[in-house]
Design goal:
Oligomer: single chain
Order of helices and strands: HHHHEHEHEHEHEH
Helix content: 55-70%
Distance between the termini: 37 Å
Shape: globular
Bound molecules: 5-hydroxybenzimidazolylcobamide
Radius of gyration: 17 Å
Number of helices: 9
Strand content: 5-15%
């Protein structure tokens, strides 16, 4: 099957909340040695983005969003071990990165995709979860001697946590030892500049490009 057809089927699986279809298309893509990164970005993520738009237009409701997210996760769960297997080995590690969704925010799909892509690109990624307390993020950066910390915020009400984290990293004396990266749908380059974050990344590919450039 062509990459475009695989992507379309992955998108449809999310839009029709079909976990089984999502799993089947992911397995087919692995068997056919398709471009799995393309499948995540232009298949599953494209479906999730459309669901998000329909939700915003009030044409879908929260249970639909949850069902779509479950289908997306079912597909991505099949692809993750394969991407990790074919990615760079731990020995080629480009540095330790801590990533999470900020305190008060349970949205995890986007940061999980970024975590997978950074891992595939050769970074040692510590994905410490969602709704993570700011103190816990700082501690993880210290424990893992992180060269970068990426935080995701999907709500305007939780973005402020990214700003507070900047101050906390300064207070704990580690701000100058790492790069701070902010992402999430409402986050912008302007927000990154306003709070003093080093990197704004729009999506997973952008994160890989900017993180890789930062270590070269
Ligand atoms: Co949620 N939700 N939601 N939601 N949700 C949003 C985010 C709204 C915009 C929808 C809306 O009202 N228009 C909205 C926030 C409004 C606002 O504040 N501006 C919203 C709300 C309000 C809520 C609840 C409060 C709803 C409720 O309970 N009444 C609640 C949150 C409770 C809480 O967090 N305390 C809630 C719950 C949910 C779920 C559970 C149903 C589900 C999340 C499931 C999960 O993540 N496991 C969900 C979803 C799926 C969405 C939408 C529809 C899609 C988000 C998504 O996964 N997009 C979203 C609408 C939207 O965003 N348009 C809606 C796909 C991913 C791939 O994109 O932007 O997350 P992404 O990530 C990108 C990019 O931003 C970047 O790279 C990623 C990959 O390309 N990136 C990073 C992301 N993180 C990064 C970190 C880095 O370091 C670097 C780059």
């Amino acid at each position: 099957m062509s990459q475009a057809d695989l992507n379309q089927k992955a998108k449809n699986a999310v839009l029709t909340y079909q976990n089984k279809d999502a799993i089947a298309i992911a397995q087919q893509a692995v068997a056919e040695k398709a471009d799995l990164v393309d499948l995540i970005q232009n298949g599953f993520t494209a479906g999730m983005t459309e669901v998000g738009n329909l939700f915003e237009e009030k044409k879908l409701f929260l249970p639909h969003v949850m069902a779509a997210a479950a289908a997306m996760n079912a597909g991505v769960d099949i692809l993750t071990p394969e991407l990790e297997r074919t990615g760079k080995s731990a020995g080629e590690g480009l540095g330790n990165v801590v990533i999470c969704t900020i305190e008060g925010d349970i949205h995890s799909i986007g940061k999980d995709i970024v975590a997978i892509m950074l891992k595939v690109a050769g970074f040692n990624v510590f994905n410490i979860g969602r709704d993570v307390a700011l103190g816990k993020i700082v501690q993880a950066c210290k424990d893992h001697k992180a060269m970068a910390v990426g935080t995701s915020a999907l709500m305007t009400s939780t973005m402020v946590g990214q700003k507070t984290l900047e101050g906390l990293l300064v207070k704990e004396g580690i701000r100058d030892k790492l790069l701070t990266n902010v992402g999430g749908a409402p986050v912008t380059q302007m927000w990154a500049e306003e709070i003093g974050a080093d990197l704004y990344t729009e999506n997973a590919s952008d994160a890989v490009a900017k993180f890789t450039a930062a270590v070269r």
